[in-house]
Amino acid sequence: MLLDVNGKTTMIKGKERNWDEYLAEKLSLPFEAIVIEISDEEFFGVGDPEPIRYEDKLTVVSVDFEDDVYGVLVSVKKGRKKYAYPLIDLEPIDKNSANANLINNYGTWFSCR
C-alpha cells in the first residue's frame, strides 16, 4: 500500500503520490478548518503559548510544501495574520465536504508512514 522514496513519493492503491502537490491540486481553497491538536504548552501550562491554539478556527489559503517531520504544511490565516501550519493538525469545519475526505485520506497515510 505504501512506498516511500526519498521521503516524498508515496504509493497508494498502485499510484505514486506527492501529497503536497496532490492536495494543492485537489483541495478547494480557501476553506475553514479547526485546530484538533493541543500543544504541549497548552496541555501542561508551561512556556509561551503559540499564536495558534487548540480549537482555533482558521482559514486554509494554500498548500505550501511537505516537511519530513510535520508532513504537508499549509498557509492559514487567523484574523489578519498568516502562518504555516501542519495540515494533519487541522479538520475542515464542513465534515461532509470533498476537502474533508481528501484530508482524511492524507491523515490515514500520515499515521501509517
Question: How would you describe the overall organization of this protein?
Answer:
By secondary structure, the protein is α+β, with helices and mostly antiparallel strands. The protein has a single domain, classed as Calcium binding protein CcbP, beta-barrel domain (SH3 type barrels, Roll). The chain is 25% helix and 35% strand. Strands 6-5-4-3-7 form a five-stranded antiparallel sheet. A two-stranded antiparallel sheet has the order 1-2. 18% of the residues are buried.
At a glance:
The protein is of the alpha+beta class and 113 residues long. The chain is built from 3 helices and 7 strands, in the order E-E-H-E-H-E-E-E-E-H. It has a single domain, classed as SH3 type barrels.
Low-confidence stretches: 1-6
Strand line-up in the sheet with most strands: 6-5-4-3-7
Give the percentage of residues in beta strands: 25-35%
Indicate the percent of residues in helices.
10-25%
CATH topology: SH3 type barrels
User: How many discrete domains?
Assistant: 1
Distance between the termini: 11 Å
CATH secondary-structure class: Mainly Beta
Which outline best applies? globular
Q: What is the H/E order?
A: EEHEHEEEEH
> Which CATH architecture would you pick?
Roll
Largest sheet: 5 strands, antiparallel
CATH superfamily: Calcium binding protein CcbP, beta-barrel domain
How many DSSP H or I helices?
Answer: 3
* Structure summary, number of beta strands: 7
Q: Structural class, judged by helices and strands?
A: alpha+beta
Radius of gyration: 14 Å
Mean pLDDT: 87
Q: Quaternary arrangement of the chains shown?
A: single chain
